[in-house]
Design brief:
Shape: flat
Strand content: under 5%
Order of helices and strands: HHHHH
Number of strands: 0
InterPro entries: ATP_synth_I, ATP_synth_I_Bacilli
Subcellular location: Cell membrane
Keywords: Cell membrane, Membrane, Transmembrane, Transmembrane helix
Structural class: mainly alpha
Protein name: ATP synthase subunit I
Number of helices: 5
Membrane topology: Multi-pass membrane protein
Oligomer: single chain
Number of domains: 1
Distance between the termini: 20 Å
Length: about 130
C-alpha cells in the first residue's frame, strides 16, 4: 500500500512540475493550472489519510482478541476526506483570481484516477 502511495505522490510531483511549467508558458490559463494543482494535492492528502485508515483497520482485523479488548469501531474517515475536498473548493471560490473552481474539482479526482491507472497498467499477468 505504501509503495502504491509513493508512486502516486511521485506522479503528483511530476504533474505539479508540468503544471507549473504550463503556467509559465501559458499565463492566460494560469488559474486553471493552479486550481488543478490544488485539487491534485488535496486528492493526494485524501489518499494518504485513507491509506492510514486502511492500515489501521487491517491491523485491527489481524490482531483481534475479542475476549480481552472492547470492540472499538474503526472508521474510514469519510467526513475528514470530504471536508478536505470542500475546503479546497472553498479556497478556490474565495480566491478565483488564483484558482479555477472547475479545475480544482477535477484535480480532486487525481488520486483515484492514478490508483486505477496504476492498477490497470502494472497488473500482473497471471
Amino acid at each position: 500500500m505504501r509503495d502504491q502511495m509513493k508512486s502516486i505522490i511521485r506522479a503528483a510531483l511530476f504533474l505539479s512540475s508540468a503544471l507549473l511549467l504550463a503556467g509559465v508558458f501559458l499565463p492566460a490559463y494560469r488559474t486553471h493550472f493552479s486550481g488543478f494543482m490544488l485539487g491534485t494535492w488535496i486528492s493526494v492528502l485524501n489518499g494518504w489519510m485513507l491509506m492510514i485508515k486502511i492500515e489501521a483497520l487491517a491491523a485491527k482485523v489481524l490482531d483481534v482478541d475479542f475476549a480481552n479488548k472492547p470492540n472499538k469501531r474503526v472508521n474510514m474517515g469519510f467526513i475528514s476526506r470530504i471536508s478536505m475536498a470542500i475546503l479546497g473548493v472553498m479556497v478556490a471560490v474565495k480566491m478565483p483570481h488564483l484558482f479555477h473552481i472547475a479545475s480544482t474539482i477535477a484535480g480532486v479526482a487525481f488520486a483515484p484516477a492514478a490508483v486505477f491507472l496504476r492498477a490497470f497498467l502494472f497488473r500482473s499477468a497471471k
